[in-house]
Design brief:
This protein has 247 residues and is of the alpha/beta class. It has one domain: 3-Layer(aba) Sandwich (Rossmann fold). Helix content is 34%, strand content 19%. The chain contains 9 helices and 10 strands. Strands 3-2-1-4-5-10-9 form a 7-stranded mixed beta sheet, sandwiched between helices. A 3-stranded antiparallel beta sheet has the order 6-7-8, with no helix packed on it. A hairpin with a 4-residue loop joins strand 6 and strand 7. The protein is globular, with a radius of gyration of 17 Å. The chain starts with a helix and ends in a 7-residue tail after the last strand.
Length: 247
Amino acid sequence: MATSISLKLEWTRILSDVYEDAVYRNPLLTAVYERELDYMRDILKDYAILVEVGCGTCKFCSSFIDTVSHVVGVDIPEEFLEFARQRSADAFGNLTLVNGDATNLENLLRNEKQLPLDFWARRKVVCCVMNTLGIMPDSIRLEVLREMVKVTGDNGHFFLAVFNGDHFRRGVEEFYRTVPHLCGDVQDSDVNYETTELNIAETGYYSHWFAPAKLEKLVVAAGLRDYRIEQHGIGLFVTSPPIKPIS
């Protein structure tokens, strides 16, 4: 979920089971999640390893433990990773959970002793889903994406899913205001509809939703050239190399 010291403090405040209950029971977000799963199932037909940046409780990446030879989840909040370890205890042979900062993703993985010996030689999918990029400070988003591109390599696949700023108002009303146990009570002063940002003064909970044009500039600056951006519900999906839209 988080990739900086400032976010570490905020996201370690959130209990893993509270997070899962809030996010994966909300129809608006669940629709995006199910679509992400469909896309990843299609992408992974040609790849052996899945790396998820900001994996949180690993609900997404652990869905593919039986699909690929190895799954790697990277995040900062240790409580979330421990929750994932307990839930996936039988899958330790092909699941590695890494506690660390994705702004240093390549070095973090190169120093991880639990990865397969041939990790860097295998074709990988590197992903970041459920608007995890949007909870990161603007100052580090590009750095994280560049690190993801580096780890993806020339023969891998990059997959990013964020929330569309065109639907931000709907997200505030249908999600954030309905889950005060997750993010705190949303006051009108916490919401900036112009920049499509939520910053809750009570708790420090932060989220940004992306205008399509801003997202495109960001992924190009990160080094993507051959890519596709598609809208699915409130989600924007970036695939590189592009795959055909899933009907």
